[in-house]
Amino acid sequence: MNIIISDTEKALDRKAADEIANHIRRHPATVLGLATGGTPVGMYKELIRLHKDSDLDFSRITTFNLDEYIGIDHDHPCSYHAYMDENLFDHVNISKENINIPDGATDSPEKECESFEEKIKEVGGIDVQVLGIGHNGHIGFNEPGTPFESTTSVVELTQSTKEANSRYFDSIDDVPTHAISMGIKTIMHAKKILLIAKGEDKAEIMEKALFGPITPEVPASVLQLHPNVTVFVDKEAGSKF
Known about the structure:
three-stranded antiparallel β-sheet, seven-stranded parallel β-sheet
């Protein structure tokens, strides 16, 4: 596991974006696994800058997002479809048919999970998977207690996760109770994983995830078993290392 500690968020964002950009330049048809939330926004801005300033080419890229809320439409401002359009897709030359985000508005979430897994298999798996980490150690929406053998599935969000995400909604009552999430087993099959964490409030869980016992109670701890993980943290998030 390669751990890179940056003095500032800006430096972290650039290093993470450079890691992805260099992979894309070597492998133009890269399959990217992407995350949402506050953590990767700066990294996406850097990727947009690299696209505009140095012609970083997304035309052959395929993407799979980790998750999506159940029960809200794609055009809902708090959907992850809308998030990805706003923070990356609308600003680079990615082909819309190569974008894969779980359909939370489907009438059959279980079938959507099966279809999502099948699409990942059809493209040969994910080359580079970007992850954030929740305060309780979740990756994707895989909450504590999720079996390491889980594949893409319908998950119930914990109260702490709903509280953390309520800042994006009018109130906590508007936060969906369930989501479709890429499973831990699916994440672990990615050839390379980039884990990003920022801020002092992530320091304790990062220490547990990277150096504590490997347990489903800290879902991110499973990353200790992956052969190719690079961790990007600012000095606050890495303060307990």
